[in-house]
Design goal:
about 25% strand, 13 strands, 60s Ribosomal Protein L30, Chain: A, about 30% helix, Phosphoribosyl-aminoimidazole Synthetase, Chain A, domain 2, alpha+beta, six-stranded mixed β-sheet, 10 helices, 2 domains, about 350 residues
Length: about 350
Amino acid sequence: MQTMDPEKPVRLTQTVSKGGCAAKLPATDLRTVLAGIHLESPKELLIGMGDMDDAALWDQGDGSCLIHTTDFFTPIVDDPFDFGAVAAANALSDVYAMGGVPQTALCILGFPASDLPLDLIKPLLLGAQRVISKSGACLAGGHTIENPALVFGLAVTGKVRKDHYWSNKGAQAGDALILTKGLGTGTLTSGLKNGEVPLEWVDAAVESMTKLNDAAPLLKEHTVHAATDVTGFSLAGHAMQMALASEKSFEMETEKLPSITGALQALEKGILNKAHRTNQKYVAGKVIYKKEGDARYWLTLDPQTSGGLLLCIPQEEANHALSCLKPRFPLAEQIGRVKEQGTHPVVFK
Protein backbone atom coordinates (compact mmCIF):
# COMPACT_ATOMS: atom_id res chain seq x y z
CA MET A 1 0.00 0.00 0.00
CA GLN A 2 1.34 3.42 -0.98
CA THR A 3 1.48 6.13 1.70
CA MET A 4 1.72 9.91 1.37
CA ASP A 5 5.17 11.48 1.34
CA PRO A 6 4.95 14.84 3.19
CA GLU A 7 8.02 15.97 1.24
CA LYS A 8 6.27 15.34 -2.09
CA PRO A 9 2.57 16.19 -1.78
CA VAL A 10 0.39 14.80 -4.54
CA ARG A 11 -1.15 17.40 -6.86
CA LEU A 12 -4.52 15.82 -7.55
CA THR A 13 -5.24 18.00 -10.60
CA GLN A 14 -2.18 16.53 -12.30
CA THR A 15 -3.60 13.01 -12.10
CA VAL A 16 -6.56 13.72 -14.45
CA SER A 17 -7.07 15.39 -17.82
CA LYS A 18 -10.08 17.43 -16.69
CA GLY A 19 -11.69 18.12 -13.33
CA GLY A 20 -14.89 19.16 -11.57
CA CYS A 21 -18.05 19.83 -13.57
CA ALA A 22 -15.88 20.60 -16.60
CA ALA A 23 -15.52 16.81 -16.83
CA LYS A 24 -19.21 16.41 -17.70
CA LEU A 25 -20.12 14.83 -21.00
CA PRO A 26 -21.14 17.60 -23.42
CA ALA A 27 -24.84 18.45 -23.12
CA THR A 28 -25.40 18.14 -26.89
CA ASP A 29 -23.96 14.60 -26.87
CA LEU A 30 -26.08 13.62 -23.87
CA ARG A 31 -29.26 14.79 -25.57
CA THR A 32 -28.44 12.66 -28.61
CA VAL A 33 -27.66 9.56 -26.54
CA LEU A 34 -30.76 9.87 -24.33
CA ALA A 35 -33.20 10.65 -27.14
CA GLY A 36 -35.83 7.96 -27.49
CA ILE A 37 -35.29 6.38 -24.08
CA HIS A 38 -38.68 5.98 -22.43
CA LEU A 39 -38.70 5.92 -18.64
CA GLU A 40 -41.52 4.95 -16.33
CA SER A 41 -43.11 8.00 -14.72
CA PRO A 42 -45.46 7.07 -11.88
CA LYS A 43 -47.72 9.79 -10.54
CA GLU A 44 -45.55 10.13 -7.43
CA LEU A 45 -42.58 11.21 -9.57
CA LEU A 46 -43.26 14.93 -9.85
CA ILE A 47 -39.92 15.74 -11.49
CA GLY A 48 -37.79 13.22 -13.37
CA MET A 49 -35.08 12.99 -15.99
CA GLY A 50 -37.20 14.40 -18.79
CA ASP A 51 -37.54 17.73 -16.98
CA MET A 52 -33.83 18.66 -17.22
CA ASP A 53 -34.11 19.81 -13.61
CA ASP A 54 -31.56 19.66 -10.79
CA ALA A 55 -32.91 16.60 -8.97
CA ALA A 56 -35.73 14.06 -8.91
CA LEU A 57 -38.77 14.89 -6.78
CA TRP A 58 -40.94 12.14 -5.24
CA ASP A 59 -44.33 12.86 -3.67
CA GLN A 60 -44.55 11.14 -0.27
CA GLY A 61 -48.32 11.52 -0.13
CA ASP A 62 -48.20 13.32 3.23
CA GLY A 63 -47.59 16.87 2.05
CA SER A 64 -43.83 16.36 1.73
CA CYS A 65 -41.51 15.31 -1.07
CA LEU A 66 -38.22 13.47 -1.21
CA ILE A 67 -35.44 14.98 -3.31
CA HIS A 68 -32.96 12.56 -4.89
CA THR A 69 -29.73 13.60 -6.60
CA THR A 70 -26.21 12.44 -7.28
CA ASP A 71 -23.08 14.25 -8.40
CA PHE A 72 -19.46 13.18 -8.68
CA PHE A 73 -16.36 14.20 -10.61
CA THR A 74 -12.58 14.13 -10.89
CA PRO A 75 -10.28 16.44 -8.85
CA ILE A 76 -10.69 20.15 -9.44
CA VAL A 77 -8.20 21.22 -6.75
CA ASP A 78 -4.95 19.71 -5.50
CA ASP A 79 -5.64 19.35 -1.78
CA PRO A 80 -7.69 16.20 -0.91
CA PHE A 81 -9.54 17.89 1.98
CA ASP A 82 -10.60 20.75 -0.30
CA PHE A 83 -11.56 18.31 -3.06
CA GLY A 84 -13.85 16.43 -0.67
CA ALA A 85 -15.40 19.67 0.56
CA VAL A 86 -16.01 21.01 -2.97
CA ALA A 87 -17.49 17.72 -4.18
CA ALA A 88 -19.84 17.59 -1.17
CA ALA A 89 -21.02 21.19 -1.54
CA ASN A 90 -21.59 20.61 -5.26
CA ALA A 91 -23.74 17.51 -4.67
CA LEU A 92 -25.74 19.12 -1.86
CA SER A 93 -26.43 22.12 -4.09
CA ASP A 94 -29.02 20.22 -6.15
CA VAL A 95 -31.16 19.79 -3.02
CA TYR A 96 -30.87 23.50 -2.24
CA ALA A 97 -31.78 24.34 -5.86
CA MET A 98 -35.12 22.57 -5.24
CA GLY A 99 -35.72 24.64 -2.09
CA GLY A 100 -35.09 21.58 0.08
CA VAL A 101 -33.12 20.50 3.12
CA PRO A 102 -30.48 17.72 2.81
CA GLN A 103 -31.05 14.67 5.01
CA THR A 104 -28.55 11.93 4.14
CA ALA A 105 -25.52 11.54 1.91
CA LEU A 106 -23.78 8.45 0.53
CA CYS A 107 -20.22 8.65 -0.78
CA ILE A 108 -19.28 7.55 -4.30
CA LEU A 109 -15.53 6.92 -4.56
CA GLY A 110 -13.47 5.54 -7.41
CA PHE A 111 -9.82 5.34 -6.40
CA PRO A 112 -6.64 4.47 -8.36
CA ALA A 113 -5.02 2.43 -5.59
CA SER A 114 -2.07 1.41 -7.76
CA ASP A 115 -1.19 5.04 -8.51
CA LEU A 116 -2.16 7.07 -5.44
CA PRO A 117 -1.58 6.49 -1.71
CA LEU A 118 -4.64 5.15 0.07
CA ASP A 119 -4.19 7.57 2.96
CA LEU A 120 -5.41 10.35 0.63
CA ILE A 121 -8.90 8.95 1.23
CA LYS A 122 -9.11 10.04 4.86
CA PRO A 123 -8.62 13.80 4.34
CA LEU A 124 -10.91 13.62 1.30
CA LEU A 125 -13.70 12.11 3.41
CA LEU A 126 -13.04 14.53 6.26
CA GLY A 127 -13.45 17.47 3.88
CA ALA A 128 -16.74 16.05 2.65
CA GLN A 129 -17.92 15.24 6.17
CA ARG A 130 -17.25 18.79 7.34
CA VAL A 131 -19.49 20.26 4.62
CA ILE A 132 -22.17 17.58 5.03
CA SER A 133 -22.32 18.24 8.78
CA LYS A 134 -22.56 21.99 8.15
CA SER A 135 -25.60 21.31 5.96
CA GLY A 136 -27.33 19.45 8.79
CA ALA A 137 -27.30 16.18 6.85
CA CYS A 138 -25.46 13.03 7.90
CA LEU A 139 -22.94 10.91 6.05
CA ALA A 140 -24.66 7.53 6.14
CA GLY A 141 -22.33 5.31 4.10
CA GLY A 142 -21.14 4.86 0.55
CA HIS A 143 -19.46 2.66 -2.00
CA THR A 144 -15.91 2.41 -3.33
CA ILE A 145 -14.30 0.82 -6.36
CA GLU A 146 -10.81 0.78 -7.78
CA ASN A 147 -10.74 3.06 -10.80
CA PRO A 148 -8.07 4.36 -13.20
CA ALA A 149 -8.84 7.98 -12.16
CA LEU A 150 -9.86 9.45 -8.81
CA VAL A 151 -13.60 10.17 -8.79
CA PHE A 152 -15.57 11.38 -5.77
CA GLY A 153 -19.05 12.64 -5.04
CA LEU A 154 -22.29 11.98 -3.21
CA ALA A 155 -25.77 10.61 -3.63
CA VAL A 156 -27.98 12.91 -1.56
CA THR A 157 -31.53 12.66 -0.28
CA GLY A 158 -33.40 15.76 0.90
CA LYS A 159 -36.89 16.80 1.87
CA VAL A 160 -39.17 19.70 0.98
CA ARG A 161 -42.80 20.55 1.51
CA LYS A 162 -44.85 19.77 -1.58
CA ASP A 163 -46.25 23.30 -1.67
CA HIS A 164 -42.79 24.87 -1.30
CA TYR A 165 -40.48 23.11 -3.75
CA TRP A 166 -38.61 25.04 -6.42
CA SER A 167 -38.10 23.88 -10.00
CA ASN A 168 -36.48 25.22 -13.16
CA LYS A 169 -39.86 26.04 -14.69
CA GLY A 170 -42.34 28.69 -13.62
CA ALA A 171 -40.41 31.90 -14.32
CA GLN A 172 -42.82 34.80 -14.85
CA ALA A 173 -42.45 37.80 -17.15
CA GLY A 174 -41.16 40.70 -15.08
CA ASP A 175 -39.23 38.53 -12.63
CA ALA A 176 -35.79 39.62 -11.55
CA LEU A 177 -32.98 37.18 -12.31
CA ILE A 178 -30.72 36.92 -9.27
CA LEU A 179 -27.41 35.01 -9.17
CA THR A 180 -26.09 34.18 -5.71
CA LYS A 181 -22.38 33.52 -6.41
CA GLY A 182 -19.65 34.88 -8.62
CA LEU A 183 -18.69 33.10 -11.84
CA GLY A 184 -15.28 31.84 -12.89
CA THR A 185 -14.46 28.51 -11.24
CA GLY A 186 -13.77 26.91 -14.62
CA THR A 187 -11.07 29.30 -15.79
CA LEU A 188 -9.49 29.60 -12.33
CA THR A 189 -9.18 25.86 -11.76
CA SER A 190 -7.85 25.38 -15.28
CA GLY A 191 -5.28 28.03 -14.41
CA LEU A 192 -4.40 26.11 -11.24
CA LYS A 193 -3.85 22.88 -13.17
CA ASN A 194 -1.51 24.61 -15.61
CA GLY A 195 0.22 26.87 -13.06
CA GLU A 196 -1.08 30.03 -14.73
CA VAL A 197 -2.85 31.80 -11.85
CA PRO A 198 -1.77 32.92 -8.36
CA LEU A 199 -2.87 30.83 -5.40
CA GLU A 200 -4.93 33.67 -3.91
CA TRP A 201 -7.22 33.45 -6.95
CA VAL A 202 -7.53 29.70 -6.44
CA ASP A 203 -8.29 30.25 -2.74
CA ALA A 204 -11.13 32.59 -3.72
CA ALA A 205 -12.52 29.91 -6.04
CA VAL A 206 -12.30 27.24 -3.31
CA GLU A 207 -14.07 29.54 -0.86
CA SER A 208 -16.89 30.03 -3.36
CA MET A 209 -17.14 26.34 -4.29
CA THR A 210 -17.34 25.18 -0.67
CA LYS A 211 -20.06 27.68 0.26
CA LEU A 212 -23.39 25.91 0.68
CA ASN A 213 -26.27 27.18 -1.47
CA ASP A 214 -28.78 27.14 1.41
CA ALA A 215 -30.68 30.20 0.23
CA ALA A 216 -34.24 29.03 0.93
CA PRO A 217 -34.20 29.90 4.67
CA LEU A 218 -33.08 33.43 3.72
CA LEU A 219 -36.00 33.84 1.32
CA LYS A 220 -38.91 32.69 3.48
CA GLU A 221 -40.65 36.03 2.97
CA HIS A 222 -40.13 36.00 -0.80
CA THR A 223 -41.67 34.33 -3.83
CA VAL A 224 -39.34 32.15 -5.88
CA HIS A 225 -41.01 31.33 -9.19
CA ALA A 226 -38.11 29.22 -10.52
CA ALA A 227 -34.59 28.22 -9.54
CA THR A 228 -31.59 26.21 -10.70
CA ASP A 229 -27.96 25.91 -9.72
CA VAL A 230 -25.35 26.98 -12.24
CA THR A 231 -22.83 24.20 -12.81
CA GLY A 232 -20.93 22.60 -15.67
CA PHE A 233 -23.16 23.74 -18.52
CA SER A 234 -22.44 27.38 -17.58
CA LEU A 235 -24.69 30.32 -16.79
CA ALA A 236 -25.68 30.52 -20.45
CA GLY A 237 -26.57 26.83 -20.64
CA HIS A 238 -28.52 26.60 -17.40
CA ALA A 239 -30.32 29.89 -18.05
CA MET A 240 -31.29 28.54 -21.47
CA GLN A 241 -32.68 25.36 -19.89
CA MET A 242 -34.71 27.40 -17.39
CA ALA A 243 -36.04 29.80 -20.03
CA LEU A 244 -37.10 26.93 -22.29
CA ALA A 245 -38.75 25.04 -19.42
CA SER A 246 -40.62 28.20 -18.40
CA GLU A 247 -41.49 29.18 -22.00
CA LYS A 248 -40.04 32.64 -21.40
CA SER A 249 -37.00 34.63 -22.51
CA PHE A 250 -34.24 35.88 -20.23
CA GLU A 251 -32.55 39.22 -20.83
CA MET A 252 -29.23 39.55 -19.00
CA GLU A 253 -26.67 42.30 -18.60
CA THR A 254 -23.11 41.03 -18.96
CA GLU A 255 -21.68 44.04 -17.11
CA LYS A 256 -23.66 43.04 -14.01
CA LEU A 257 -22.39 39.47 -13.87
CA PRO A 258 -20.51 38.92 -10.59
CA SER A 259 -17.15 37.18 -10.87
CA ILE A 260 -14.75 35.52 -8.45
CA THR A 261 -11.49 37.37 -7.79
CA GLY A 262 -9.14 36.83 -10.73
CA ALA A 263 -11.68 35.19 -13.05
CA LEU A 264 -11.91 38.01 -15.58
CA GLN A 265 -8.13 38.42 -15.62
CA ALA A 266 -7.74 34.68 -16.24
CA LEU A 267 -10.21 34.83 -19.12
CA GLU A 268 -8.45 37.87 -20.54
CA LYS A 269 -5.28 35.72 -20.57
CA GLY A 270 -7.19 33.16 -22.64
CA ILE A 271 -7.36 30.45 -19.94
CA LEU A 272 -10.13 28.22 -21.24
CA ASN A 273 -10.87 24.50 -21.14
CA LYS A 274 -12.75 22.13 -23.43
CA ALA A 275 -16.04 22.73 -21.59
CA HIS A 276 -16.01 26.42 -22.59
CA ARG A 277 -16.15 25.28 -26.22
CA THR A 278 -18.74 22.55 -25.69
CA ASN A 279 -20.94 25.01 -23.78
CA GLN A 280 -20.55 27.47 -26.65
CA LYS A 281 -21.77 24.76 -29.02
CA TYR A 282 -24.63 23.80 -26.68
CA VAL A 283 -26.16 27.28 -26.64
CA ALA A 284 -25.44 28.18 -30.27
CA GLY A 285 -28.50 29.61 -32.01
CA LYS A 286 -30.48 29.87 -28.77
CA VAL A 287 -28.39 32.35 -26.76
CA ILE A 288 -27.38 35.58 -28.45
CA TYR A 289 -24.89 38.25 -27.44
CA LYS A 290 -24.49 41.95 -28.06
CA LYS A 291 -20.73 41.37 -27.95
CA GLU A 292 -18.81 38.13 -28.40
CA GLY A 293 -15.24 37.01 -27.76
CA ASP A 294 -14.28 39.14 -24.78
CA ALA A 295 -13.73 37.98 -21.19
CA ARG A 296 -17.34 38.58 -20.13
CA TYR A 297 -18.58 36.53 -23.09
CA TRP A 298 -16.47 33.58 -21.93
CA LEU A 299 -17.60 34.18 -18.35
CA THR A 300 -21.16 33.31 -19.41
CA LEU A 301 -19.85 30.00 -20.83
CA ASP A 302 -17.50 29.20 -17.95
CA PRO A 303 -18.20 25.69 -16.56
CA GLN A 304 -19.05 26.20 -12.91
CA THR A 305 -18.42 23.69 -10.15
CA SER A 306 -20.62 24.27 -7.10
CA GLY A 307 -21.78 27.52 -8.67
CA GLY A 308 -24.51 29.80 -7.39
CA LEU A 309 -28.27 29.61 -7.64
CA LEU A 310 -30.09 31.42 -10.44
CA LEU A 311 -33.40 32.61 -8.96
CA CYS A 312 -36.51 34.11 -10.55
CA ILE A 313 -38.09 36.48 -8.02
CA PRO A 314 -40.77 39.14 -8.59
CA GLN A 315 -39.07 42.45 -9.38
CA GLU A 316 -40.84 44.24 -6.54
CA GLU A 317 -39.26 41.77 -4.09
CA ALA A 318 -35.77 41.79 -5.63
CA ASN A 319 -34.10 44.50 -3.55
CA HIS A 320 -35.29 43.07 -0.26
CA ALA A 321 -34.35 39.55 -1.38
CA LEU A 322 -30.82 40.77 -2.18
CA SER A 323 -30.53 42.43 1.22
CA CYS A 324 -31.40 39.07 2.79
CA LEU A 325 -28.96 37.13 0.59
CA LYS A 326 -25.91 39.39 0.69
CA PRO A 327 -24.78 38.74 4.28
CA ARG A 328 -24.24 35.09 3.27
CA PHE A 329 -23.70 35.59 -0.47
CA PRO A 330 -21.85 38.91 -0.80
CA LEU A 331 -21.55 38.65 -4.59
CA ALA A 332 -25.30 38.08 -5.09
CA GLU A 333 -26.58 40.36 -7.84
CA GLN A 334 -29.58 40.98 -10.05
CA ILE A 335 -28.25 40.17 -13.51
CA GLY A 336 -31.36 40.56 -15.65
CA ARG A 337 -35.09 40.14 -16.05
CA VAL A 338 -37.56 37.62 -17.42
CA LYS A 339 -39.47 38.63 -20.56
CA GLU A 340 -42.33 37.11 -22.47
CA GLN A 341 -41.13 34.39 -24.83
CA GLY A 342 -39.28 35.83 -27.77
CA THR A 343 -37.16 34.59 -30.67
CA HIS A 344 -34.28 33.50 -28.43
CA PRO A 345 -34.44 31.95 -24.92
CA VAL A 346 -31.54 34.08 -23.62
CA VAL A 347 -30.15 37.44 -24.69
CA PHE A 348 -26.97 38.91 -23.17
CA LYS A 349 -26.85 42.69 -23.59
